[in-house]
Amino acid sequence: MTAPVQEAALALRLDGITKRFGALTANGDVSLDLRSGEILALLGENGAGKTTLMNILFGHYVADEGQVLVNSGNGSLTELEPGSPHAALEAGIGMVHQHFTLAENLSALDNILLGTQSLATLSTARAPARAKLEDLMARSGLTVSLDARISQLSVGEKQRVEILKALYRDARVLVLDEPTAVLTPQESETLFATLKTLADDGLGIIFISHKLAEVIASSHRVAVLRGGCKVADLPTASCDQRKLAELMVGHEIVETIRTEKEAGRSLFVLKRIFAGQGRDALQDVDLDLKSGEILGIAGVSGNGQTTFAKVISGLEPIVSGEMLLEDQPLTHVDARKMIDIGLARIPEDRHHDGIVGAMSVSENLAIESIRKPENQSFGLLRFAAIRERARSLIKAYDIRCQSEDSPARLLSGGNIQKIVLARTLETMPKVVLAAQPSRGLDVGATSDVHKRLLAARDRGAGVILISEDLDELMRLSDRIAVIHRGKLSEANPTEMLDRSTLGLRMAGHDGEEAA
Amino acid sequence: MIRFEPRGPVPVSRVLSVLVAAAVAALLLAAIPMAFAGLSVFGAYGLMVKGAFGSMFAFTEMLTRATPLILTGLAAAVAFRAKLWNIGAEGQLYAGAMAAVAVGTGAFGGPSLFLIPLVILAGALAGGLVMLGPTLLKTRLGVDEVVTTLLLNFIILLFVQMMLEGPMKDPMGMGWPQSEPILDEAALPKLMARMRIHWGLIIALVASLGVYFMLKRTVWGFEIRAVGENAAAARHSGIPVTATFVRVGLISGALAGLAGVGEVAGLKGYLTADLSPGFGYSGIVVAMLAGLSPVGVIIAALFIASIFVGADSMSRATGVSNYLADLMVAMSLLCVLVAGLFLRFKIRLVGAPAAKETAK
Fold it and tell me: CB-hemisphere CA count at 13 Å for A365?
């Protein structure tokens, strides 16, 4: 992107911010400058301290050391009162959280005005506010219907309301936390075009991201956080993806490669499945998973993926339709039965559904097979065998823990995922359902997950990979289908697809229209 | 500003010392109203210790009082482990007592070897069945078991009163609402001559060890712990969550039922509607004090029984109400809960000065 405006005034300065949570240092002596009219990308892996830093800026947290300085409009920097979102708002800092903070049952206008006017204001007094917003919308291109209820808006529109909310309060600095996490590729492009317009208008913008492509495409400058510390602060023009990735991870990255492979026979078939209720319901879903393939399911979150995963996991009953494994119809399924017939399930929310945090690593490794003879006899647990097996799995899957007796909740997200992988994959399942398997994991753990899934595929298992990350899907999948509003598109070979086709399907346009 | 920072694992010695400190703090806090009541604090506590431990009689009385508390404490502990909130041990206790009386007052004849196990089984079964209803309502219809188990207590107590005025009334009872006495062959034997302490204590201790063993060593225990700690993950991992709840409900109810068996077949000999001075509810306190540990339940029950028995004795000597015992038990629970907070979190006072500086 074009060179940043070097001579513009400083809008914001973070000076030596340190924040500790117990023994964990979330931010260590981080300093950061932002100029007016500049788009700064804050890049880092999950847990690198990006969100913590922005929460300190916005007053949700108080830094243990360091201070936040803001240009209050007159050119000089003044210290911002720590721990006060109100002060941050007053000083012209607007924040768009990853999870929107909108009242669903109020109109867009009400949401934008919330907190700026007293409750007793007559609706006629809103005319000036409306005029100001109309003007803002015209200048920034952020158009939304002000009178629509938030619950009626799409995710992209809700995000626009959030940005307008900040602009309405005369923000001079706008912070966006992972703004593209919930958007389709097309919506993301529109967002960045808008941000560019706003920056040209003098707004200082920080956006948090871990997606390299969008950082390169849409920022002037990039600051990289790793382990809570700033490890780089560079003009974006001087970076490429590889360099940023290595800065982010701290070492060279070996990418997993999918080798071409002939797909096998039909393995797991869904026929005209209806299930679930509301927005996340499945509508007439067909699927034909072959052995030895990874079938990717793309889609913006909340389009039925959760119900889809639950149905295959045996946790959600089918309203109508048929499920077949190796031509045998599956009826009256529950989680137990799915496990027993050789279906490995990697849950979307590994902390909530994957492990029992208070129980030990070895117990979590045995939990799916606790009633198998190798783990119990006559209802008594075979401790020695359970721990023996745990030790070998810990070794084989490189699970980093103090011992097999430590509580599972003490492990990092990546190691928790390894527990789930170890206990599900070592039973040599026929079908693997991986729901968002790398969400929230760092690069190393992600590549480990990918390797395991590819290994399962290469030995002949059928893998269903549900993901919101197009790069991950395109790298791993042999075929990709798109889920939108509970309907699953036909699965096409990955080679025949590109990002924009997938993006259009994710937004609900079918393949023919896109072509 | 007060800030809570989570702690890592804490050594056992630390846990024990904090618990002792909590008990001491509770006694100190309870000393305040004692002083207001005009007692000499040391004198009063001295009387309490004497009342609970001062003689063989006092000691066995304390153990007798601890017996039902161990069982109702276990009932709460095992259910709470699965996050099944059984608040109905009081009702289950009466159901167990009623069943014991029903089979133990002459409906069946025979030697002790037959009658005592029969009475025990009947009581356990009745307690378990009472808990079955709330458990099924919870798993099938999502009805909150706190409400159902709590309200069942009153239903069962009223039912007991009805039975004691009607079919179960002792014709030789001079009109008192009490049941016929349990046959000698069906009664739990005394442990010591001339004392009230009975075999119920042995049953309670064995039950504690049994529950400990079950939770730690068996598949059922594994499943109970998994369901209690994270029901979603347990269900996802193929653990039969509903069956586990039903099982735990039956076990919990049965333990409370056993407490009722002990009270009628070991102690009183017949059923009255004032059989339990709230043993079911105190069992919840016992379980919480014990941190839901089945072995800890024994210690917590002994602690609470000493306070009750000691306070009764002190009350008789000084004329101060024995409600003081309830106060001390409540203080202990609060202090132990606060101690638990200290064990899990470091508490630091921070932030305030920094904020003031910038406000200028």
Answer: 30
pLDDT of residue B40: 86
Cα separations (Å) of B43 from A362, B22, B48, B359? 53, 21, 9, 54
How far B213 CA lies from chain A's nearest CA (Å)? 10
pLDDT at A2 over 70: no
B171 in any annotated domain: yes
With beta carbons less than 8 A apart as the criterion, state whether A506 and A304 touch.
no
Is residue A309 classed as helix, strand or coil in its secondary structure? Answer: helix
Q: ipTM for the complex?
A: 0.84
Residue in B337, B342, B61, B70 with CA at minimum distance from that of residue B194:
B61
How many structural domains is chain B composed of? 1
From chain B residues 148-177, the ones with a CB under 8 A of any chain A CB are none
Model pLDDT for residues B290-339, shown as the tens digit of each residue? 989 999 999 999 999 999 999 888 888 888 888 888 888 888 889 988 88
Q: Residue B350 has what pLDDT?
A: 58
Which residue range(s) make up the domain with B139? 68-290
Q: Does B218 touch chain A (CB under 8 A)?
A: yes
List the domains of chain A with CATH numbers: 10-100+172-249 (3.40.50.300), 266-342+429-514 (3.40.50.300), 361-424 (no CATH)
The answer to whether residue B307 is domain-embedded is no
Q: Within a domain: residue B297?
A: no
**Does residue A512 carry a pLDDT above 70?**
no
- Residues of B within 8 A of A434 (CB-CB) are none
**CB-based contact (8 Å) between B229 and chain A?**
yes
In a domain, B250, yes or no: yes
> Do the chains contact at B234 and A358, CB–CB below 8 Å?
no
> Nearest-CA neighbor of B258 among B201, B177, B184, B189?
B201
Residue contact B229–A380, C-beta within 8 A:
no
The 10s digit of each residue's pLDDT in A106-155 is 888 888 888 777 666 666 677 888 888 888 888 888 888 888 888 888 78
Minimal CA–CA distance to A96: which of A191, A219, A236? A191
- Using a CB-CB cut-off of 8 Å, the residues of chain B touching A62 are 350-351, 354-355
